[in-house]
Design a protein that fits this description.
Length: 308
């Protein structure tokens, strides 16, 4: 089935070519955004896709081995016609997609995608998540896709992709202590591995713990070496608050960065932030994590958050 075209298709394609994104190599920043989209939406597949005359080309992909697929009948071809998120809960019952390549050849049974629309109104592609089983999307997950899509566009339009990633990494590396050591406590294996890779990628030394109890043991064993504890709040057993209370009782000047999507449910956080702790709210991008880590580490340099 031939897919409909946007009204401004000629201008859209010209805008896409001027961006010079097609056929560029994989880049960690875009891969991380796709990875976060899959984690947040609890799907096995996520893509950052751009669409030209004949194909959908994947700049980043998680859980999919293909580099491109035909445009006709694709989810992306219809998603760029939407002003907001396109959700297809069961493509087998949707005549637009029941014969599409991803449905027939890959077994996709769920799709949600948001157009990557430039400031001048040209939808160049999509940020999409997919799965091989039917799905539902929560309002929070849908809003997270919007946030991540805005970040993709920001990075694309402000600088060429590789320049953006390399210059940002150099900027971060130049502003921090080269010997800083971080204890990372996160019970989601995929997210922990991603965050550890991001932190180590700019030169931090990282101890990684799968729960609060393991983090407490690592902190006791390496107490003097740890400059910052980055911890999720909601974990089985000892949660992030409990971890902070025990660590601070032993060493009151330890800095904490808490990761959470439920900060309003933990009034104890307000008290902890008085003592040099910081909060990073989900969903967030790798660059947000690095920026907040820098802020928290630098607090000690000006003498804040270490009293009492």
């Amino acid at each position: 089935m031939q897919s409909p075209l946007p009204q401004n298709e000629g201008c859209r394609l010209d805008r896409l070519r001027r961006l010079r994104i097609l056929e560029t190599s994989c880049e960690q920043g875009f891969d991380d955004i796709a990875h976060l989209a899959a984690l947040i939406c609890d799907t096995s597949v996520a893509v950052i896709a751009f669409i030209d005359e004949q194909r959908v080309w994947f700049k980043a992909k998680i859980g999919l081995e293909l580099d491109e697929i035909p445009r006709d009948g694709s989810f992306c071809a219809y998603a760029i016609l939407q002003p907001d998120v396109l959700i297809v809960p069961d493509p087998l019952s949707d005549e637009r997609f029941m014969s599409s390549f991803l449905v027939k050849q890959v077994g996709i049974r769920f799709y949600a995608g948001i157009p990557l629309t430039t400031n001048d109104g040209h939808p160049l592609g999509t940020l999409g998540v997919m799965d091989r089983v039917p799905h539902l999307m929560t309002a929070e997950q849908t809003d997270s896709l919007r946030i991540l899509a805005r970040r993709v566009l920001h990075d694309l339009e402000r600088h060429p992709p590789k320049e953006t990633l390399s210059s940002h990494k150099l900027h971060l590396a130049s502003n921090r202590q080269p010997s800083a050591t971080i204890l990372l406590a996160e019970d989601d294996d995929n997210l922990r591995n991603l965050l550890q890779r991001v932190l180590e990628g700019v030169g931090f030394s990282v101890f990684a713990a799968a729960d609060g109890a393991e983090a407490l043991r690592l902190c006791e064993q390496n107490n003097d070496a740890i400059d910052l504890v980055v911890s999720d709040i909601v974990m089985n057993g000892i949660n992030g608050i409990g971890l902070a209370e025990r660590v601070l009782a032993a060493r009151s000047d330890t800095k904490f960065l808490f990761i959470t999507g439920f900060s309003d449910q933990f009034p104890e956080l307000l008290e902890l932030t008085k003592y040099g702790s910081n909060i990073l709210r989900k969903p967030f991008l790798p660059s947000d994590l690095l920026s907040r880590v820098e802020d928290t580490l630098n607090q000690g340099k000006v003498g804040t958050g270490t009293e009492g």
